[in-house]
Amino acid sequence: LVLLSPEDRLTALDDDAADVLFCNFTVPPERSEAVDFAAPYLKVRTALLSSNNDPVTDVSQLRDKKLIVVAGTVADEYFSRKHPEIALEKCNSDREAFEAMMAGHGAALAHSNHILLAWAAYTPGFAVSLPEIGEELFIAPAVRKGDAKMLEWLNTEIANLAFDGFLRKAYELN
Fold first, then answer.
1. In angstroms, how far apart are the furthest CA atoms of the chain?
2. DSSP conformation class of 135
3. Beta strand pairing status for 20-21 and 42-51?
């Protein structure tokens, strides 16, 4: 098991530091050029988390405010491309981003909706105020481009976990 920042994931496969990326890894077309994705196991969208005292319910409310993102994530890419007028505070990890949000460094935190929903459920004073921004994406594990043997093994294991109900149970627990 190797801990990686979102920006280090692709190089971990290229440098043989990891054989499989099994994380919050979305499947946009440009990533499919660099890796082979296994079967997806979750659908997500970018969402906004904000304080219950000052909820951000529309992206336009972020003008002249800071938005916290994790560098290299879909949320970072989306807001950098679609909303360059919004000032981004880029963090290096989820932990750093949530700490920045708790410290009041931004009006909102943008990330995958499933991560924000789980965090908000256990963190009083915060809520997912805008649950769906941008396009729906799949999350799937990835392997080195062209590693057919590893991809076949991974797809078999995912199918077994899905058949046994493990993936649904794990999702429902969180």
1. 51
2. E
3. unpaired
Q: What CA–CA distance (Å, rounded) separates 129 from 49?
A: 6
The first and second tokens of residue 46, run together, are 């970018």
Residue 14: what pLDDT?
84
Contact 40, 138 (CB under 8 A): yes
Other CB atoms within a 10 A radius of the CB of residue 154 amount to 22
Q: Which tokens in the block code for residue 43? A: 């659908």
Query: 29 or 150: which carries more pLDDT confidence?
Result: 150
pLDDT-wise least confident of 17-26, 104-113, 135-144:
17-26
In sequence order, which residues have a C-beta less than 8 Å from that of residue 3 and are 6 or more positions away?
A: none
Count CA atoms closer than 13 A to 59's CA, side-chain side.
Answer: 17
Instruction: Report the distance separating Cα 55 and Cα 24, nearest Å.
Output: 25
Please state whether the predicted TM-score (pTM) of the whole model is above 0.90. no
Q: Which range (46-55, 134-143, 144-153) has the least confidence?
A: 134-143
Dihedral angle sign, alpha carbons of residues 123, 5, 73, 35? negative
Whether the pLDDT of residue 122 is over 80: the answer is yes
Q: What does the alpha-carbon distance between residue 163 and residue 5 come to, in Å, rounded to a whole number?
A: 31
Q: What is the pLDDT of residue 173?
A: 57
Distance, in Å, from the CA atom of 102 to the CA atom of 150, rounded to the nearest integer, reads: 40
